[in-house]
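Dear V.,

Thank you for sending over the compound details. I've combined the ligand you provided, pyridoxal-5'-phosphate, with the protein sequence from our construct and run the structure prediction for the complex. I'm sharing the raw inputs here so there's no ambiguity about protonation or stereochemistry in the SMILES, which I know was a concern on your side last time.
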Amino acid sequence: MKFGTKAIHAGLEPDPTTGAIMTPIYQTSTYVQASPGVHKGYEYSRTQNPTRHALEKNLAALENANHGLVFASGLAATDAVMKTLKPGDEIISTNDLYGGTYRLFTKIFEGYGLKFHFVNMTDLQNVESHLNENTRVIWVETPTNPMMSIIDLQGIANLKKGKDIQLVVDNTFSSPYLQNPMDHGADVVMHSVTKYIAGHSDVVMGALMLNDDELKDQLAFIQNASGAVPGPQDAFLVLRGIKTLHVRMQRHCENGKEIANYLKNHPKVDKVYWPGFEDHPGYEIAKKQMRDFGGMISFTMKDDSVEYSVKILERFKLFSLAESLGGVESLSGHPASMTHASIPREERLKSGLKDSLIRLSVGIEDIEDLIEDLEQALG
Ligand SMILES: *Cc1c(COP(=O)(O)O)cnc(C)c1O
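Below is the predicted structure of the protein with pyridoxal-5'-phosphate bound, written out as structure tokens.
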């Protein structure tokens, strides 16, 4: 089955009692048993819920994985992965990553004895030189956030071949439409479902997709034991959003390309970070592991002052200034003070994230209106 057909149909059956084509919202905490332990596979909604299960099956199919598990947020999904580890275990992570992930790793899990190495993974040597017998997880975001660097997934998978190490890819920026990390050697794919997958800025949710049965059992145990599960209403909203994921992504990509080129040719703009430029250092790898280049774009101005960037952000009319990304509406953000404020300034500058950098999540509005908004805000 091709992607769009999977988005609409995978894992979904008409409701057996009524034939309803949309998966019903099973808004229930518990399920009646005929006799102690005799039930229909559902006991309590932290453990199992039919609406959630339908979504989990659908998400697994979108990432070409055998299993899907959903969590109350993207960070709750990441938290579950870290809980499979024990003190002394080491994690090699992208240095240019989502601020909340960095905060979870350093402020919570370092305290429990996990050791993190944040490295620039565009050079695979930096990964190789940190590998040792304690390494258990390699945590990758690609394209990176917000510098839009591309990391070679197959290259990293080759480095850890034959070792007891999980390659986990936070695929939020690409969505399963643009990139399927399992096809390039990843063991686990993580998503902030909140973003492109749900797509309508109305849900917070996370997901893990994977093949390994044993690891799936361990993560499902944590999902139930720690209890960070989403409710059935949210699962329904995400199932509904996914039905148009491929169509939305096509427009995100079209608009993203137009805007990246517009910014590149703008006399006041200094650098534009978008992996679809042929002179982007990761272009060839992006072409290999992504189907298209997406609608996430970062840029800096020749006048490299925070005040100027703030002025632009205040002037936007359509590019609303807000945290998050991947919704149908265009958003703008200032990573240094918003999404990445929890990363120390020296760390941010090391990965090239200037205080003046502006990040755009290009939505699916009409391109003429988006360009007009940029024109007036930069003017
Ligand atoms: C938003 C985001 C997260 C965290 O997800 P939540 O759903 O907000 O918990 C993780 N990684 C990336 C790349 C994100 O954009």
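A first observation: The domain at 245-378 is CATH 3.90.1150.10 (Aspartate Aminotransferase, domain 1).

Warm regards,
I. M.
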